[in-house]
Design brief:
Blueprint (H helix, E strand, L loop, with lengths): L1 H41 L3 H12 L12 H36 L1
Helix pairs in contact: 1-2, 1-3, 2-3
Length: about 110
């Protein structure tokens, strides 16, 4: 029973991710692009820029890198909004997969 529930969940999860992949990949590309732009303006290395973008996008915010210019701060806010959208999208797909697995189990 538990094994089939897991299989159904993961199958529904992969199906859902395939459906939303264009939106998800676009948001991830936008997060990376904005991070690179911020890094160029702030004078950071490429790896620091991408690291900053994902730490900000996942709303972790360690604080080791912080934009100083008003434009880069505004772009960092945009990265945060994109990160919240990515998280919400993945969570919605996962909740749908749980519901599908539960309905299939009954």
């Amino acid at each position: 029973m538990g094994r089939t529930l897991r299989r159904t969940f993961f199958a529904a999860l992969l199906t859902g991710l395939r459906v939303v992949w264009p939106i998800l990949s676009g948001l991830l590309a936008l997060i990376i692009a904005l991070g690179v732009v911020i890094g160029l303006i702030e004078g950071w290395a490429l790896y620091e820029s991408i690291y900053f973008a994902f730490v900000t996008g996942l709303t972790i915010g360690y604080g080791d890198l912080a934009p100083k210019a008003p434009l880069t701060r505004a772009l960092a806010i945009l990265i945060g909004v994109c990160g919240v959208l990515v998280t919400a999208l993945v969570a919605a797909v996962a909740v749908r997969a749980v519901a599908a697995a539960r309905d299939d189990d009954e």
